[in-house]
Amino acid sequence: MLSMDGAWSAQHPRRPAGIDMWTKQKKNRHTGRLIVPAVAASFLAYFAVHAKSGQYGIEAKAALEQDLATRQASLGRLVKERESLEKRVQLLHDGTLERDMLDEQARRALNMGTEDEIVILR
Protein backbone atom coordinates (compact mmCIF):
# COMPACT_ATOMS: atom_id res chain seq x y z
CA MET A 1 0.00 0.00 0.00
CA LEU A 2 1.28 3.44 -0.76
CA SER A 3 1.84 5.77 2.12
CA MET A 4 1.55 9.54 2.08
CA ASP A 5 5.18 9.99 1.15
CA GLY A 6 4.88 7.64 -1.87
CA ALA A 7 6.69 4.58 -0.37
CA TRP A 8 5.17 1.17 -0.10
CA SER A 9 4.06 0.29 3.39
CA ALA A 10 4.00 -3.27 4.70
CA GLN A 11 1.28 -2.46 7.19
CA HIS A 12 -2.38 -2.70 6.51
CA PRO A 13 -4.29 0.46 7.39
CA ARG A 14 -6.82 -1.44 9.50
CA ARG A 15 -4.31 -3.66 11.37
CA PRO A 16 -2.26 -2.58 14.33
CA ALA A 17 1.48 -2.21 13.87
CA GLY A 18 3.65 -5.31 14.41
CA ILE A 19 1.30 -7.84 12.81
CA ASP A 20 2.54 -9.42 9.58
CA MET A 21 0.62 -9.44 6.38
CA TRP A 22 1.53 -13.06 5.78
CA THR A 23 -1.21 -15.59 6.21
CA LYS A 24 -0.69 -19.22 7.03
CA GLN A 25 -2.35 -21.66 4.69
CA LYS A 26 -1.65 -24.77 6.79
CA LYS A 27 -1.90 -25.53 10.44
CA ASN A 28 1.21 -26.50 12.33
CA ARG A 29 1.09 -30.25 12.63
CA HIS A 30 3.76 -32.28 14.34
CA THR A 31 2.80 -35.56 12.69
CA GLY A 32 4.86 -34.83 9.58
CA ARG A 33 8.01 -34.83 11.66
CA LEU A 34 7.19 -38.27 13.07
CA ILE A 35 6.65 -40.16 9.81
CA VAL A 36 10.30 -40.81 8.90
CA PRO A 37 11.36 -41.87 12.43
CA ALA A 38 8.30 -44.13 12.71
CA VAL A 39 9.07 -45.86 9.41
CA ALA A 40 12.76 -46.21 10.34
CA ALA A 41 11.84 -47.63 13.77
CA SER A 42 9.48 -50.16 12.19
CA PHE A 43 12.19 -51.35 9.78
CA LEU A 44 14.68 -51.68 12.63
CA ALA A 45 12.15 -53.61 14.71
CA TYR A 46 11.44 -55.95 11.79
CA PHE A 47 15.11 -56.75 11.26
CA ALA A 48 15.77 -57.07 15.00
CA VAL A 49 12.98 -59.63 15.42
CA HIS A 50 14.23 -61.70 12.49
CA ALA A 51 17.84 -61.45 13.65
CA LYS A 52 16.78 -62.97 16.95
CA SER A 53 14.19 -65.55 15.98
CA GLY A 54 14.49 -66.01 12.22
CA GLN A 55 15.56 -69.14 10.35
CA TYR A 56 19.24 -68.17 10.66
CA GLY A 57 18.89 -66.01 13.77
CA ILE A 58 20.56 -66.22 17.16
CA GLU A 59 18.10 -68.79 18.51
CA ALA A 60 18.48 -71.03 15.47
CA LYS A 61 22.27 -70.90 15.67
CA ALA A 62 22.39 -73.28 18.65
CA ALA A 63 20.15 -75.78 16.89
CA LEU A 64 22.27 -75.58 13.74
CA GLU A 65 25.48 -76.14 15.73
CA GLN A 66 23.97 -79.17 17.49
CA ASP A 67 22.83 -80.58 14.15
CA LEU A 68 26.32 -80.01 12.75
CA ALA A 69 27.94 -81.90 15.64
CA THR A 70 25.53 -84.82 15.20
CA ARG A 71 26.19 -84.99 11.48
CA GLN A 72 29.96 -84.80 11.94
CA ALA A 73 29.83 -87.75 14.36
CA SER A 74 27.72 -89.66 11.86
CA LEU A 75 30.19 -88.77 9.10
CA GLY A 76 33.09 -90.13 11.16
CA ARG A 77 31.24 -93.40 11.73
CA LEU A 78 30.36 -93.70 8.04
CA VAL A 79 33.94 -92.99 6.95
CA LYS A 80 35.22 -95.82 9.17
CA GLU A 81 32.56 -98.16 7.82
CA ARG A 82 33.42 -97.23 4.24
CA GLU A 83 37.13 -97.82 4.83
CA SER A 84 36.32 -101.24 6.25
CA LEU A 85 34.15 -102.09 3.25
CA GLU A 86 36.79 -100.82 0.81
CA LYS A 87 39.37 -103.02 2.50
CA ARG A 88 37.10 -106.07 2.12
CA VAL A 89 36.40 -105.24 -1.53
CA GLN A 90 40.13 -104.85 -2.15
CA LEU A 91 40.69 -108.35 -0.80
CA LEU A 92 38.11 -109.66 -3.27
CA HIS A 93 39.58 -107.78 -6.27
CA ASP A 94 43.24 -108.76 -5.92
CA GLY A 95 42.85 -111.44 -8.59
CA THR A 96 42.90 -114.23 -6.02
CA LEU A 97 40.31 -114.71 -3.35
CA GLU A 98 41.57 -115.20 0.13
CA ARG A 99 40.36 -118.46 1.54
CA ASP A 100 39.56 -117.01 4.93
CA MET A 101 37.41 -114.29 3.42
CA LEU A 102 35.62 -116.70 1.12
CA ASP A 103 35.06 -119.14 3.97
CA GLU A 104 33.73 -116.38 6.24
CA GLN A 105 31.25 -115.14 3.64
CA ALA A 106 30.06 -118.66 2.78
CA ARG A 107 29.46 -119.54 6.42
CA ARG A 108 27.60 -116.27 6.98
CA ALA A 109 25.44 -116.73 3.87
CA LEU A 110 24.66 -120.37 4.62
CA ASN A 111 24.40 -119.85 8.38
CA MET A 112 26.65 -122.84 9.04
CA GLY A 113 29.69 -123.61 11.13
CA THR A 114 31.87 -126.56 12.03
CA GLU A 115 31.81 -128.46 15.30
CA ASP A 116 35.11 -127.07 16.57
CA GLU A 117 34.12 -123.38 16.04
CA ILE A 118 32.79 -121.09 18.70
CA VAL A 119 29.95 -118.86 17.52
CA ILE A 120 29.57 -115.42 19.06
CA LEU A 121 26.18 -113.85 18.39
CA ARG A 122 25.84 -110.11 18.16
Detailed description of the structure:
It is built from three helices and no strands. The protein is mostly helical and 122 residues long. The protein has a domain at 33-110.
Keywords:
122 residues, mainly alpha, 3 helices, rod-shaped
Tell me, briefly, the overall form: rod-shaped
Give the amount of beta strand, in percent: under 5%
Name the average pLDDT: 80
- Percent helix, as a range, is 55-70%
Q: Low-confidence segments, ≥5 residues, pLDDT <50?
A: none
Task: Briefly note the structural class of the backbone.
Answer: mainly alpha
Count of DSSP E strands?
Answer: 0
Biggest sheet statistics: none
Query: How many individual helices?
Result: 3
Radius of gyration: 45 Å
N-end to C-end Cα span: 115 Å
**N-to-C order of helices and strands:** HHH
Briefly say what this structure is.
The protein is mostly helical and 122 residues long.
Set out the fold topology.
Blueprint: H1 32-53, H2 58-92, H3 99-110
